[in-house]
Amino acid sequence: MRRWSALIPVAVLLGVGLGAGVWAVWSRGDDGLPDPLPVPAGDQEIAWLHTTTGGDTWALFVIGLKRTEMPVDGQPSGLTVDDSRAFPEQSTAVPEVVVSRAGVAGRLRIRWYKLSAGATTDQWVRALAGRDPAPLAILGGSTSDRAYDLAVALERQTEWRGDRPLLFLTTATLDNVYPPNPHPDDHPHHSELRNLLDLYPGRSFRFCFSNAQMVRAVTDFVLQDPTLRPGPTGYPGLHLALAAAAGPWATFGDLADLTRGPTVFPLEWQDDPYSGDLYNQFREYLYATLSGPGGSLGPPKIVSDPAFSIPFSVGGFSRPNAGELAAVRAILRDLPPPGERSLVVVPTVSGPARRVLLALAERVPQAGRRLVAVNGDGASANTYFRDAEWAWPARSIPIPMVFFTHDHPFGWDAPGDPAPPGYRLVPKNTTEEVRLDTTIGRIVADAVFPPGSGRIADRADEVAARLRDRPDRFFDARGNRRGESGEYVVVVRPTTRYGDLTPGAPRPEAVIEVYRRAAAGRTWRPVPQPNGKPVEVLPERPDDRGTPE
């Protein structure tokens, strides 16, 4: 039995590879390109391009679309989402969701065309360009590198049967990229950097927030929260009063530390472009913010050490790799004494961040009072909630973590909410992806099914004009989502003193708070949960593990 079980993973991999190969051959047309489905007369299409392994992402997207049927501000949406062909039994079939609006002729077909080695982004774009009609838009860009490939392929393809389609980016957050280099041996200059949306100019729309917006949101929040703000852990005014009282003697001994700003330790992982971009943006924005007119603590001490540029992010569960351990030792050398809180920038996914913070927690007394960690959207909120027992054990990582989400991560349905049957959001998973997909679905539907026209939009240019003219100004002139309104920041506060103190009652290992940026800019408001309580991360109980089968 053990010998057979050892072959199961190999068989699964062979099956997946064979399935992808069969699908690539099956879906090809006479010209050797992938073969997109025809569009019935009167209907329109949006092509959702994603890899063959994107089943989970597609499932969340379908849930988000289905929830566009729910009323908006008490008014019926008028939308109907047919998901009967969203999950076909045959892997060679094209998954499809059909959206219609009451009183409007024509339907919008959103289809998942699968990317693979035999059906690349460039090949799909050329195949869609040869079909009549062309899609209204290409929906994709779940990562920045895929968004780059899509934008480049669309810009190169100039011949279409109708308007050139729009590009809708879902969660690609990178701000600036280098344009395609015709000479691979020539190293591009920094001056050649361009905004990601400028690769396919005038036709690209980003529904998520960018790296720069995430950095500004997280930084602004941390600096306005006295329990997280780096610097002296007491009243900030006392810091300045002591420095003024010291006078000229403040340049000697420990009093010299009173005249500088807080200490920041920015880390980056060299094998992760996302990490490098956020590393630079955090450094620049922290310095500009703390050194500017509102920087009451003075210019920060942003520690620069070669060890902070970590060569790679591969490692075990809890033990830091050699580069991460060197970074931890460098932090310990420059860590201020107790009484001052420092900021650790860990712009990466959960594994490397967990290893570094575990190592710091083991070596720094009262680490939860002396350190605060910040990130972008490198890890899902599920890391700290659903998967916390193994992915983020707060009992071993007492350091608060502040990170960004593109929508409300705990926006579960309250009793009585009119969710479609089978599509309620319950406290088992976080809700950021589904809620963002619902926002995408509603915004696209408003542009594709124009009110009062009685017909579906049949030109991409018509859809683009409506997206730019939205009353809420959701997009800026370039097509990026507007910032300083609607961003979400999440704080994971490890604690052992919160909650029910009744003997025997489980105490949460962490409390997760959610804040939303108000329209005023730097004003943040706590987001209440459906039950009126903050989200608690409770220790796993024996009966939570289930019974082995």
Question: Helix and strand layout, with pairings?
Answer:
Layout: H1 2-26, E1 44-51, H2 55-66, E2 79-82, E3 96-101, E4 108-115, H3 121-129, E5 137-140, H4 144-156, E6 166-169, E7 176-177, E8 194-195, E9 204-206, H5 211-224, E10 231-232, H6 236-246, E11 263-266, E12 268-269, H7 273-291, E13 301-302, E14 309-310, H8 322-334, E15 340-345, H9 350-363, H10 367-370, E16 371-374, H11 388-391, E17 401-405, H12 432-448, H13 460-468, E18 488-494, E19 510-517, E20 524-526, E21 535-537
Parallel strand pairs: 1-4, 1-5, 5-6, 6-9, 11-13, 11-15, 12-14, 15-16, 16-17
Antiparallel strand pairs: 2-3, 3-4, 7-8, 10-15, 17-18, 18-19, 19-20, 19-21
Helix pairs in contact: 2-12, 3-4, 5-7, 8-9, 12-13
User: What is the CATH third-level topology name of the largest domain?
Assistant: Rossmann fold
Number of beta-strand segments: 21
What's the CATH first level of the largest domain?
A: Alpha Beta
Ends apart, CA distance between termini? 16 Å
Mean of residue pLDDT?
86
Q: How many domain regions? A: 2
Give the overall shape.
globular
CATH architecture type of the largest domain: 3-Layer(aba) Sandwich
**Into which percent range does the helicity of residues fall?**
25-40%
* pLDDT < 50 stretches: 1-26, 236-258, 542-549
> What structural class do you assign from the helix and strand content?
alpha/beta
Percentage of β-strand residues:
15-25%
What's the tally of helices?
13
Strand count, sense and closure of the main sheet?
A: 10 strands, mixed
Overall radius of gyration = 26 Å
Write down the oligomeric state.
Answer: single chain
